Amino acid sequence: MIPSNTICVSQEGPANALALNKDCSQVVIAGRNVFKVFSIGENEFTEVCNLRVGKNLNLNFSSIDVAWSTIEENTLATAATNGAVVVWNLGRSGRSKQEHVFSDHKRTVNKVSFHLTEPALLISGSQDGMMKCFDLRMKEVARTFISNTESIRDVQFSPHQAHTFAAVSENGSVQLWDVRRHERCLLQFTAHSGPVFACDWHPDMPWLATASRDKTIKVWDIYGKPNLEHTIYTIASVGHVKWRPQKQYQVASCALVLDCAVHVWDVRRPHVPLATFAEHRDVTTAIAWLAEPHTFLSTSRDCSLYRHRFSEAAHPVLWANPQGVCVSARGEVAHAAPERPLPALPALPAVPDRHVPGLGRKQPTAGSLSPNAQAALERAFPGGASSTLSRHAASASARTVALVQCARAYRMRGASPHDLAQHNAEVARAHNRHMVSHVWEVVRCVYLARAAAGRATPAPLPLQDRELPRVEPPPLPPYTHTHHNNAVEEEPLEEVEDWAETQFHNSGVLGKPTLSIYIPPAKQPKHVRAEETAGWVSAASAHYVDTEAADWTLPEEAFPLRTAPPPPAPAHHPHAHHTSPHHVRQDDKEQNASQRGGGGGASPGGSSSPGSGSSGSACTAPPNLDHSGYHHNHMHMEEGESGDSGLAIRVGDAKSPQLEVAPLLAAALKLHAELGDVQTAAVVMLVLQEHRSDLFPYIDESLQEHWLLGYIELLQRHKLWNVATEVVRCAWLNSVWVMSQQSTSVAVCCGRCGRRTRPHAACDSCHPHLRHLPDLCAVCHQVVRGLYAWCQGCSHGGHLQHMRRWMDTHQLCPAGCGHQCQLA
Amino acid sequence: MGELTATNLFESQIIFADHKDLIHDVAYDFYGERMATCSSDQYVKVWDSDGHGGWRLTASWKAHHGSVWKVTWAHPEFGQVIATCSFDRTAAIWEEVGDTAASGSEKGLRTWLKRSNLVDSRTSVTDVKFGPKHLGLLLVTCSADGIIRIYEAPDVMNLAQWTLQHEIPTKVSISCLSWNPSLSRVVHPPMLAVGSDEPNTTNAAATVQGDKTTACNGKVFIYEYSESSRRWTRTDCLSSVQEPVNDIAFAPNLGRSFHLLAVATKDVRIIKIEPIAESGGASNNGAALRFKCEVVAAFEEHYSCVWRVCWNLTGTLLASSGDDCAVRLWKMQYLNQWKCVAVFKNEPLPGDSPPQSRPHTTYMRLATMANPSHMPFH
After folding, report:
1. Residue A53: left if φ>0, alpha if ψ -120 to 50, beta else—which one?
2. Pick from B33, B274, B348: which is nearest to A341 by CB?
3. Helices A678-687 & A662-674, crossing angle to 10 degrees?
4. Helix or strand or coil: residue A757?
5. Is A607 near chain B, with CB under 8 Å?
6. In this predicted structure, what is the pLDDT of residue A228?
7. Do B65 and A236 touch (CB under 8 A)?
8. What is the rounded CA–CA span in Å between residue A330 and residue A324?
9. Sequence-distant contacts of A772-779: CB under 8 A, at least 24 apart
10. Which chain B residue has the Cα nearest residue A701?
11. What's the gap in Å between the CA of B87 and the closest CA on chain A?
């Protein structure tokens, strides 16, 4: 029974190398301060013998590499830092097992390796660039191979041709030698662009894997001409490489720096390791398979020796994200998915807590697979290396196009709110956005009513009676002159707002709009105005009348509002001078629209055209609740509510009770914003111009800013720079308005050298002595005062008359720059 | 009616990406006119739209020494800049050089230069994201060892210099993160959501529970930056998500009072995070609950595991992909119900059919909806 868990033993010093005996029952580890033999038990390593004993522990005990004879049970060889190759005999009696020391190399020996069939042959590779073949019976150097490279990092006998060995060196070359011929190598080729640190012969194929500092493992077909079969890309310099037994395409590697883990690769999928073992906390120094594919040993600079079970492997491919999805600003969806997805892996029930001794980094999915799942993964792994990238786009007329078209066509200034609203409503309807159109209609009605009220006021007298200053600018405390119900007015407003908001927030993610703006009937009486106030007009409306009387095209009208928005005033009450003929007209239009939009029947795909029909019916009939979507219902409710409570929009009856429009409108805008349609919210706010202060009590400033910024970002994403700039220009919030001043700079350049100058100063570099002089005329060399005509091509110029005269007779620039000037 | 039907047709097209291994991420730029892909083959590719629905490869380079997990675009205000993160423990910032205004077709491949390499992580960098523009040029990375790092380029003109501003240890493996993109500076402080892919072993749970800052063993954490203490603190842990998280995405917030967070885990989840108005000013002591969180939708339609989620521009549509290799689009409908409105499925290639070398176009009709009028047209 094979024990299932990883085992580990810690040592006093880091081991540089390990070697297994031929039946894989014992392991020797060797390092600068450690040299021990362990027997590999079921669940632990047992120390068999410590070879680092004796009176004089000289440098011969500091090993870089260790090898265990593949034939002789008791023969070991180590490579020492001082250039010695030491042979050990475990069968010796006494404490010292040292058999013989070959001190033939001048510099550090990097590698020792036994011949696979000749028990007496040992080969070494050294930093001095030489390989020596030792005859253990004669205790002498049989042959010396001179590589003509700087230093040899690894030598290894081929399992396929008994007398061939491979040597890799720090200059990136690989050499094949016949052990019987030391004159010249059989074959030499440059394998890597950096030092090659290790090589390993494939047990079955004529393949040689080489590991290099260039972070790659290359697999060469050595049969005949060396041919690069595979290249594996790792994240760090590769220090060691070992083929996995019985798995043709799998090779294990460990890094020299940076990466502590051991990776097992499938050469057919060169970028992702098949399995990773990350138990070590420092870089792994050596790995060795236990002659079967499911277990290997590794030592590390963290002084530990591990036995890893393949079933404990972590599979990076399982936690790597195999898919990518992105939605673009244009509404396209890009999707990358594996062409051949990995087999579905039944997730094991949560793994019981196995506290691995010396637990290193946690690893997702480590050891989470059943053997069958792991085998399936192993099979599917090499083929899973391709993805399909596809894009899905709404053909031609995407839904975002409506947003863009609306953004282009919407008007935000230059007319009265109701005119703008009417225009925008038509725009929205033209793009099948009936809900939005509906909001605009409401805005139009409300503000048309107010405008009408404003226009009507000069005739009734209360305005003059109260000596309202008619040309007062908008920041005017609106209710200072009202005679009653001031406090009454403020108080319920707040309540209504709170109520509406809580209702709104309690109703699910985006509000349940049918309930969101229901005004409790109990509140209504407070909003009902006494009859005597019917003719009253608020200050803002008075101002409005003035501006209405003046030219509506003045766009600068909004400017004072930016810097000083009027204090949030309680909402003004629109008045009931909306005449019924107009209303009827609107109804007709609505009905037509609904017939147009919804005439096709029940499926106007994606948008809700019945909404347009409802506006007509809502004014005349009770709300038709089963009619349409929630959005519709919401609007419906608003309309219905206003109808029921006799909101002035509906009929021109001044005596009817009135209802606050502002909170309803604010709630509508909020709803739109929460539904992701910030465009409507922002543009309505913009269009309301100075009336938007009505809504300020219901929409706090940060939210207003949020809307504007959101809309601007939306426009920028669609590259609607002009519209975005327009929004910035119309914005009433300082924080938004300053955007027009950000990242806008004017650079002044010298007309002669083109270098940047300080504003209002001559160029420092080309006029050091004329520093105070401004631009001179290129013809008369006098200072130009007044009109300065200049060529846009070369930026030379001067007095207009001089330039004209010059250009009449000449083609080239008067300054002599050679430019063919054109004076427009 | 005719054109309305046409808008419901989605056009699907295969792009021959020629990546040598799995593509891990696809990212559109700010305008949706450029696209970057990254793959395990260590390459990053940049594609430009030709304006007629086609995509042309304009750059392809080896970006890392390991699998490139994520690619992300900076706001174009900072130039044509992307950031990548990789299994090789680094994140890199790349800038396109040369005349980007020149007309594309006759130009060859464009050059992207590595401006900076962020090497602080000791393990695989699993996600990288640029911060919202109004916070300056910020970059956040997270790594498998659970450390979130926030970098800032003090000089936006010098992309070579990035200073590590904050290092937030989380003690669990972090797989993904998302900035809260809210534009509202006043109401919403800088906020990050991170998701953990820590498997649910008892071992891991013990680790999380041993964490003193929270007794919650959820997999999604919310971090907020406090201007007063100049620190990022964990303000919430969504206990409703208990499974390993593969991807996480805040919906663009263009004017909502709450945030929507999509989480890709065993299912697609949409979580509404509503900041609770603080009554007494800055009561930011961690004990007070900052958010009201509510799972508004959870879908199991993806076969076993959801890998990616992504929102559209306005935060009204969510795209997700999972082990079924299909993209599903989710949209909110009547009564706050989120419904699947479309499924795009790439047919897995049988056996050894040749790769699709020629782009071909298929058309797909949107899934029928319960009642079209239930979908507001936004």
Report:
1. beta
2. B348
3. 150
4. strand
5. yes
6. 92
7. yes
8. 18
9. A775/A751, A777/A802, A777/A803, A778/A802, A778/A803, A778/A806, A778/A813, A778/A814, A778/A815, A779/A803, A779/A805, A779/A806, A779/A814
10. B186
11. 8
DSSP annotation of B369 reads P
The reply to whether A334 touches chain B by the CB within 8 Å rule is yes
Chain B hits for A402, CB-CB cut-off 8 Å, are 377
Tell how far CA B258 is from the center of its chain.
19
Say if CB A36 and CB A51 are below 8 A apart: yes
Report whether pLDDT(A456) > 60: no
Contacts of A351 in chain B (CB under 8 A): 199, 201
Output the pLDDT for position A198: 93
Q: Which two tokens stand for residue A484?
A: 């009653």
How is residue A565 written in tokens?
């928005």
User: Rounded to whole angstroms, how far apart are CA atoms A173 and A197?
Assistant: 11
Alpha carbon distances (Å) from A544 to A447, A451, A541, A731, B168? 11, 8, 5, 19, 56
Cβ atoms of residues A417 and A617 within 8 Å: no
CA–CA dist A691, A693 (Å, integer): 5
Report yes or no: A675 at the B interface, CB cutoff 8 Å: yes
Closest Cα in chain A, distance from residue B213 (Å): 21
Contact assignment for B308 to A505 by CB distance below 8 Å: no
A215, A281, A312, A326, best to mutate vs chain B, most B CBs in 10 Å:
A326
A719 Cβ under 8 Å from any chain B Cβ: yes
Ramachandran angles phi, psi of A471, nearest 5°: -110, 30
Cα gap A188→A645, rounded to integer Å: 98
Residue A678 in this model has a pLDDT that exceeds 80 = yes
Q: Counting runs of H as helices and runs of E as strands, what totals does chain A give?
A: 20, 35
Q: Which of B171, B172, B378 to probe by mutation at the A interface, max A CB count within 10 Å? A: B378
What distance in Å separates the CA atoms of residue A361 and residue B76, rounded to the nearest whole number?
38
Considering only CB atoms, B6 lies closest to which of A392, A395, A432, namely: A395
pLDDT in tens, chain B (378 residues): 333 333 456 677 788 888 888 899 999 999 888 999 999 889 999 999 887 778 888 889 999 988 899 999 999 989 899 999 998 889 999 999 875 555 544 456 678 999 999 999 988 899 999 999 888 899 999 998 889 999 999 888 889 999 999 999 988 888 899 999 887 766 778 899 999 887 765 444 444 444 444 456 788 999 988 888 888 988 888 888 888 888 999 998 888 888 889 999 888 989 988 887 654 444 444 445 678 888 888 888 877 788 899 998 888 889 998 887 788 888 887 667 888 888 887 654 443 333 333 334 444 444 433 333 334 333
Each residue of B118-145: b (16+ CB within 10 Å) or e?
bebbebbbbbbbbbbbeeebbbbbbbbb
What are the tokens at A7? 């085992």
Dump pLDDT digits (tens) for A114-150.
998 888 899 999 998 999 999 988 888 888 999 888 8
CA R_g for chain B:
21
pLDDT of residue B345: 76
Shortest Cα distance, chain A CAs vs residue B285, angstroms: 24
Question: How many A/B residue pairs have CB atoms within 8 Å?
Answer: 370
Q: With contacts defined as CB-CB under 8 Å, which chain A residues touch B182?
A: 706
pLDDT of residue B94: 94
Q: Considering CB atoms only, which of A316, A333, A387 is closest to B17?
A: A387
| Partner residues linked to B29 by β-bridges | none
- Nearest CB to A325; choose among B67, B254, B321: B321
pTM of this structure: 0.73
Instruction: Extract the tokens encoding B35.
Output: 């696209």
- d(CA B31, CA A660) in angstroms, rounded, equals 41
